[in-house]
Amino acid sequence: MADLNLHKIHDTLLDIASEAGKMILAANPSSIDQGTKLNSVDIVTETDQAVEKMVSTRLQSAYPNISFMGEETYTKGTRLGPEPTFVVDPIDGTTNFVHSFPDACISLGLSVDCVPVVGVIYNPFQDLLFTGIKGKGSYMRRAGGPPQRLPLAKSPIPLKGLDGALLACEWGSTRDGPNFELKAETFKRLAATKETGGAMVHSMRALGSAALNLAAVAAGQLDMYWRAGAGRGMCARAGVS
């Protein structure tokens, strides 16, 4: 990784995220073509595909020796390896995008040795930007304002238990089978009262975007979530394990 200029890559990803944001905002969700992948709730739109094409073209031109893994061109069974790899979700929160719900973003990450080292998450609907570089921390910027280092609280107070936590949870696109049943039971136990064996968390949120969930954890706005991608690196840079 010594020969990789992470700051330059970070700036390239910022520029690409800005261009992607303009493409997303210019699209009319009510009139674009859309299809499905796993099932009727696993949606892909022509905007997802167009944004990923733009991203892959620009990254392969700028960094031809770095591998590329995209959400819409991913081949089942492909695994992230130790070689430097750009990991991209052109629109994380496609269902939100289709419904004109403003929690959707582009997620751009660089992984080396299967560890995120650069991450950029941009929600163009709210002009909300999260960035992170390994060893340099993570930052949030709203509406072009000054960057705020994450977590936002200067002295975060550790949680004493789940009963004080605001959690992120997502149902995902699999709506049957043992994993779905386990997820439903887990959510129920998290929300239930302690008298009935639950954790009685403060509350649970489903933003519809894994990357935005993780960015919110890095910012300290949410307490817990689980997933991987650019947001995982954001959490690591913010000191969230």
UniProtKB/TrEMBL annotation:
Pfam families: Inositol_P (PF00459)
Residues noted as binding Mg(2+) in the record, renumbered to the chain: E71, D89, I91, D92
Superkingdom per UniProt: Eukaryota
Annotated keywords: Hydrolase, Magnesium, Metal-binding
GO molecular function, one term: metal ion binding
InterPro entries linked to this entry: Inositol_monoP_metal-BS, Inositol_monophosphatase-like
GO biological process: inositol metabolic process; signal transduction
PROSITE patterns per record: IMP_1
Reported cofactor(s): Mg(2+)
Similarity comment: Belongs to the inositol monophosphatase superfamily.
Protein name as it appears in the record: Protein qutG
